[in-house]
Amino acid sequence: MRHFLLLMILALLPSAAHAESHAVEGFALLPGWRMEDGRHMAGLEIRLAPGWKTYWRRPGEAGIPPSFDWSGSQNVAAVRIHWPVPSVIRQSGMRSVVYKDHVILPIEVTPKNPTAPAVLRLDLDMGVCKDVCVPVEAEAEVDLSPAPVRPDARIRTALADRPFTEGEVGLARAGCDVRLAPGGEARLTVQLNMPPLGAAEEIVFEPSDPELWVSEPRAHRQDGALVAVADLAAPRGRPLVLDRDALRITVLGDQGAAEIIGCD
């Protein structure tokens, strides 16, 4: 509902249409290459005008999450997006997780028939912001050939710009504690015994249930460990259930990022 109201407000801004037409300088699907295992690595390139930004998969309280529709594709069984490390900004006391100016999202495609050509078609809704924030709708289509070609260096660079895994930062398993509160809410505390990723570290929690509300985590260092606390709430009328094994925890620092799946 919050994002719906935000979009309605933005649509009423007199400068919104003008801003949208100048914000996005380029938008294209990159054909990429067919991999040896039959999957196909493509890419989505978004070029924004200087000073503009768009949002990561979990945009923060002030952001507009991107929405991807691949239903018009042909010979495509599954699509997975690989997300390069984003930036964190704060405006008016609210946090946003963004990409600035230019980003390539690697798109891993599983064809139904890995020996045949495929067509990847995308209908994308996203938010872009500068002095104002506006919703943008974009379409793109690309042919994915099974013929051997040289991997696209731009996509490979974006793939390399990924968060560290828990093993790469020396973390065996995250510890988490969930305590229920009156009114159906809960408090989640996560402890990560990992080295710092910079002077300022931000935490993002992503439960497997997208309807589960999670507040912005409050993070601090305690005895060498990174500790983050957030409030949880289920939709009205539903019990609060958190799948700990599927909880995705992303740590964003000025010296890198880490992604941890699951906690005990």
Structure description:
It is a single chain. The chain is mainly beta. The two termini are 32 Å apart. The chain contains 3 helices and 19 strands. β12 and β13 form a beta hairpin. The chain folds into 2 domains: 159 residues, Sandwich (Immunoglobulin-like); 98 residues, Sandwich (Immunoglobulin-like).
CATH fold-level topology of the largest domain: Immunoglobulin-like
| Fraction in helix | under 10%
Query: Which shape, going by the Cα principal axes?
Result: globular
What's the name of the CATH homologous superfamily of the largest domain?
Thiol:disulfide interchange protein DsbD, N-terminal domain
CATH hierarchy, class of the largest domain:
Mainly Beta
What amount of the residues lies in strands? over 45%
Radius of gyration: 20 Å
Please tell me the overall pLDDT: 90
Q: Which structural class should the secondary elements be placed in?
A: mainly beta
Residue runs with pLDDT of under 50 for 5 or more positions? 1-18
If helices are DSSP runs of H or I spanning 4 or more residues, what is the number of helices? Answer: 3
Task: Give the tally of structural domains.
Answer: 2
> What is the number of beta strands?
19
User: Judging by the overall fold, what is the CATH architecture of the largest domain?
Assistant: Sandwich
Order of helices and strands: HHEEEEEEEEEEHEEEEEEEEE
For the record, give the distance between the C-alpha atoms at the N and C termini, rounded to a whole number: 32 Å
Biggest pleated sheet: 6 strands, antiparallel
